[in-house]
Amino acid sequence: MVLRNMVDPKDIDDDLEGEVTEECGKFMAVNRVIIYQEKQGEEEDAEIIVKIFVEFSMASETHKAIQALNRRWFAGRKVVAEVYDQERFDNSDLSA
């Protein structure tokens, strides 16, 4: 699963990974959380977006978490929760 628009790059702190793990752990066991910052262009001042990837122990249960988290508000931002392509994730391609 990928969570988009959850935080601004300046809001990333040492607690974020644990907070995401705890919240997503309410739905099922979390294997890992990856916080990924992606620059939206080659320019020095290009926008940076944050994607948070959550891998659950049972991929079949991911839809429950997506239903609960999609369009939910977090830190004044509306979260977008979506399924992420497992093959891309397994190959460390976090660009989609």
Automatic annotation (TrEMBL):
The lineage of its organism: Eukaryota, Metazoa, Chordata, Craniata, Vertebrata. The keyword Phosphoprotein does not apply. It comes from Melospiza melodia (Song sparrow). One of its GO terms (biological process) is alternative mRNA splicing, via spliceosome. The keyword Membrane does not apply. Residues 1-82 form the RNA recognition motif domain. One of its GO terms (molecular function) is RNA binding. This is PUF60 factor. InterPro entries: Nucleotide-bd_a/b_plait_sf, PUF60_regulator, RBD_domain_sf, RRM_euk-type. Keywords: RNA-binding. GO terms for cellular component: catalytic step 2 spliceosome; precatalytic spliceosome. SMART domains: RRM_1.
